[in-house]
Amino acid sequence: MKNLVLIRHAKSSWEVPTHDKDRSLKCQGIKDAHLVSLHIKDFLPKKYIIWSSSAKRAVDTALIFAQNLLYPVESIEYKDDLYTFDDYKLENIIKSISNQYETVIVIGHNGAITDFANRVGDQFIENIPTSGFVSLRFDTDDWNKIREGKISKTIFPKNLR
What we know:
Oligomer: single chain
Strand order of the largest sheet: 3-2-4-1-5-6
Strand content: 15-25%
CATH topology: Rossmann fold
Mean pLDDT: 96
CATH architecture: 3-Layer(aba) Sandwich
Number of domains: 1
């Protein structure tokens, strides 16, 4: 059994003109990331790894989640390839995960996150919001063979406010 948690980075700011990859989080994004990360502990197994896009807004989101989950921040793996908006590229990255890991948290970007969840999940989600959490289970022991997953839990900030 493989478990994949998809988290869309927290809401970022468009106020400062900068490269897309360098955008930082808005105050509301920081609050939402804390809110969701404090509510997911019971839905995670004891062992997992966290992979994050290398974009600033995803890095900052990963740090908030890791701190609230008591996950060592130095163990977060930042991947340039996760800076993608394409669900097929995201799928290829996920399929490259070593089979020694049963559960992986991936922090990334939309449309890749929503499109991938809808393509492999058993429930349609119109849009995974910023700081949104979606947990999928795959009935396989090989990341390369994930196809049809079961969405076991979704947590969105608006449902926690």
